[in-house]
Automatic annotation (TrEMBL):
Belongs to the four-carbon acid sugar kinase family. It comes from Pseudomonas izuensis. Residues 3-219 form the Four-carbon acid sugar kinase N-terminal domain. The keyword Disulfide bond does not apply. This is Four-carbon acid sugar kinase family protein. InterPro entries: 4-carb_acid_sugar_kinase_N, 4-carb_acid_sugar_kinase_N_sf, NBD_C, NBD_C_sf. Pfam families: NBD_C (PF17042), SBD_N (PF07005). SUPFAM superfamilies: YgbK-like. GO terms for molecular function: kinase activity. It comes from the Bacteria. Residues 247-401 form the Four-carbon acid sugar kinase nucleotide binding domain.
Length: 426
């Protein structure tokens, strides 16, 4: 069994695929959703559809599936564990092509669970969290209603049934498929619940695909007997450029990420620069653009690890995140050759910096903590391949960024190397 993962943002693609890399499978994340990776056992394609209209997102998702899917390959549609984006429209578009949709967004390792078809975050209903309110004020966070609105017929699978007799459960899925049900919403409270679901559905003969966050994907990765070839450990040799300093880019404004930044500064002692949104909105024409670009260069020239963040003001709109992230990447680009390790928090931020510096795919290597993925560029436009860690903005422990920084600090030579001369990045 090989796996095709289709995700709607880069950090999501990475946190979903990293479980397979940790299990020893050749795993690649690609930013070009139409670019095949023939040597990979697991391909995670970022379609970058989070901010599109539902119709555009569905169209791009189907195009990625048709371009990348191979006979015998299983499909995993990665969705955000807090139901952001156009996930329901994307699932509805894939369902006629892939079969019964097994919908299980729970990610217990990060505090996301599903009960009665509703998402809870650390025991709190999703609708009451800042994560949901930031972008979805006054909208219900109900999995079933979202799927029905997208045109799918649904059924729910509760915990008692999931944890019951396996033979009865197999019969139940067969009956659902025969009844014309298109999507089954599966409650899960623990990793063992998801493992039970993974084992069962991997053996079913009927056409189906999985819909979930990194939680269910991690449990599927544990099913080593179902993969076509033996797991292969990927060598994690360091390149000559993967050295100090480390740059931490933060585009997320979530409370979770704010706490992570605080811990990183207190325990890691990093310098911090917070770029005003006004500078990023206006870009190179802003009177302070050159000053900010110089300040970033000075920090990195001094071999100082740097925490670089997008600020917030009274006119901030969450929907401008992609533009602000793109402009933040533009500030960094002239100095990227000085960076020995990169940590990018937030899918839009990660995609913006990698696209800007010409990196279109990552070979994933290991997991720093749940959903925090470490890898290296498979290739880059300029041949420069620093160590890279990605993390979704709104989850992880308070120590997640610090743990990521520690991982790069221990991986990289902290001495001052001779910097390469790379045309286009100087």
């Amino acid at each position: 069994m090989s796996i095709l993962i289709i995700a709607d943002d880069l950090s999501g693609a990475a946190d979903c695929a990293i479980g397979f890399a940790s299990a020893g499978l050749q795993t690649v994340v690609t930013l070009d959703a139409l670019n095949d990776q023939p040597d990979a056992q697991v391909i995670a394609a970022d379609t970058d559809t989070r901010r599109l209209s539902p119709e555009q997102a569905a169209e791009r998702t189907v195009a990625a599936f048709k371009a990348l899917h191979k006979p015998g390959q299983r499909l995993y549609k990665k969705i955000d564990s807090t139901l952001r984006g156009n996930w329901a429209a994307e699932v509805a578009a894939l369902q006629p092509l892939a079969g019964l949709a097994i919908v299980a967004p729970a990610f217990p390792a990060t505090g996301r669970t599903l009960r009665g078809g509703r998402v809870f975050v650390n025991g709190q209903p999703l609708e009451t969290t800042d994560t949901w309110k930031l972008e979805n004020a006054d909208r219900p966070a109900d999995v079933e209603s979202m799927l029905i609105a997208a045109g799918l017929s649904t059924a729910k699978l509760d915990l008692d049934t999931l944890r019951g007799n396996p033979d009865v459960l197999v019969h139940h899925f067969a009956e659902l498929a025969r009844s014309g049900t298109q999507a089954v919403i599966v409650d899960a409270q623990t990793e063992n619940d998801l493992l039970t679901l993974a084992r069962l559905t991997a053996t079913l003969d009927q056409a189906l695909f999985w819909i979930g966050s990194g939680g269910l994907a991690r449990e599927i990765a544990r099913l080593s007997d179902f993969f076509d070839t033996p797991a292969r450990r990927v060598e994690t040799t360091d390149g000559e450029y993967n050295q100090a300093p480390i740059l931490v880019l933060v585009g997320s404004l979530s409370g979770v990420c704010e706490r992570q930044c605080t811990v990183l500064k207190e325990q890691g002692g990093l310098s911090e620069l917070i770029v005003p949104p006004a500078v990023l909105r206006q870009g190179i024409s802003h009177q302070d653009w050159a000053t900010w670009q110089a300040r970033i260069g000075e920090q990195l020239d001094g071999w100082s690890d740097l925490l670089l963040r997008i600020g917030r003001d009274e006119t901030f709109d969450p929907h401008e995140g992609a533009h602000l992230s793109t402009m933040l990447a533009a500030l960094v680009e002239p100095h990227f050759v000085k960076v020995g390790g990169l940590i990018a928090t937030g899918g839009e931020t990660a995609r913006a910096i990698l696209t800007t510096v010409g990196i279109d795919s990552l070979q994933l290597l290991t997991e720093v903590e749940a959903g925090v993925a470490f890898g290296r560029p498979s290739a880059s436009r300029h041949g420069y391949r620093p160590a890279i860690i990605t993390k979704a903005g709104a989850f992880g422990t308070d120590r997640a960024l610090y743990a990521a920084w520690q991982h790069l600090s221990e991986t990289n030579d902290r001495s001052q190397p001779k910097r390469p001369r790379i045309q286009g990045l100087e």
